[in-house]
Amino acid sequence: MRVEGxxxxxxxxxxxxxxxxxxxxxxMRRQRFERLQALDGVSFDVGRGESFGIVGRNGSGxxxxxxxxxxxxxxxxxxxxxxxxxxxFIELGVGFxxxxxxxxxVLINAVMLGVSPxxxxxxxxxxxxxxxxxxxxxxxxxxxSSGMQVRLAFSVMIHVDADLLLIDxxxxxxxxxxxxxxxxxxxxxxxxxxxxxxxxxxxxxxxRFCDRALLLERGTVVALDDSRTIARGYTRLNFPTxxxxxxxxxxxxxxxxxGAAEILEAWTQDPEGNRTPxxxxxxxxxxxxxxxxxKPTQEPVFGFSLxxxxxxxxxxxxxxxxxxxTGWYAPGELVNVAVSFDNWFAPGRYFLTPHVxxxxxxxxxxxxxxxxxxxxxxxxxxxxxxxxxxxxFVWNTVSPDPAVA
Length: 405
Description:
The protein has helices at about 20-25, 60-70, 100-110, 115-130, 145-160, 175-190, 205-210, 225-240, 245-255; strands at about 1-15, 35-45, 50-55, 75-80, 85-90, 165, 195-200, 210-215, 220-225, 260-270, 280, 285-295, 295-300, 300-310, 315-320, 330, 335-340, 350-355, 365-370, 375-380. By secondary structure, it is an alpha/beta fold. The chain has a six-stranded mixed β-sheet, sandwiched between helices. Strands 11, 14, 15, 18, 19 and 20 form a six-stranded mixed β-sheet that branches. A three-stranded antiparallel β-sheet has the order 2-1-4, with helices on one face. Helix 3 crosses helix 4 (about 115-130), helix 3 (about 100-110) runs parallel beside helix 5 (about 145-160) and helix 7 packs antiparallel against helix 8 (about 225-240).
């Protein structure tokens, strides 16, 4: 899928006329409008089988972009190319008739999404079963709760064998059990090579499901990068240390924190405390960084993450989860931060990213150095997993049960 120069604007009336009487009393009154530029020259591309996130604050144009892609809105300018069957899950109630039963709505929506009437009837039982609405299938949709409607709409979408799934924030309406069910389906769709576009305010979902992501602000593209970098940019926009325009410019140029701290270097240590580019599997080790604080800082949060050669995060640790406080630091003060653990990672190369953040909600960064150094884990136990957890097998012979025999 490719989008080039997509723009969409709306006309917002300053004064709305709701009745014929108002129109008759003021026939010569000129109605004034304000132009709202919802999207302005948005461009990006999504590869086949890629999971792609679209994030931004409220009013940034995320839902407008999805509705343009789904054909609900017609764009004012720009071009879009989509290949394959598309299934949108954009807004609660779109495409549903509240005066029809769930049975009728399922059949109609499945046909609208490209399934033949015969296929829709064949898949109906599976759709209702996935939504767990067997006892309510003859109930009119206007009597459904919002959660029940979400389950029904999502179930229809995943049963049409679409190549491209457009999923908006409505996933957050479902209960915890259904959300986990949706996560399982998304993982399976990703494994099957389907393309997924996900709009959400949940940055953990973006980092969990998406390979890359797009950050929007007031209808324009702020950044297009890997999901973890975009998640940090989104957090900085929501918790700015300066005005929004300066924050947007900073994100566009770099995403290395606000400069309240500086990570001078980072390294790995062996059990004897020596710096080393390789670590032996099964032995204690430590990750270390040296930080200079450039501003007076109370309780900074120090953390490390490791990613493997397949770009999977295999370790994330932070002092935020520690019961002890990190203290107060004056400008110019240096501090060495280390975390130690037994190394049970599988053999291979790992990349170290240290970071320093402000305490509290939002995780605003003072400093971060992506993949500042790497370390090779050596060992002979290659079980095929990411980690080789210490374990012990136990077995014994069991006599057959006469009743079973």
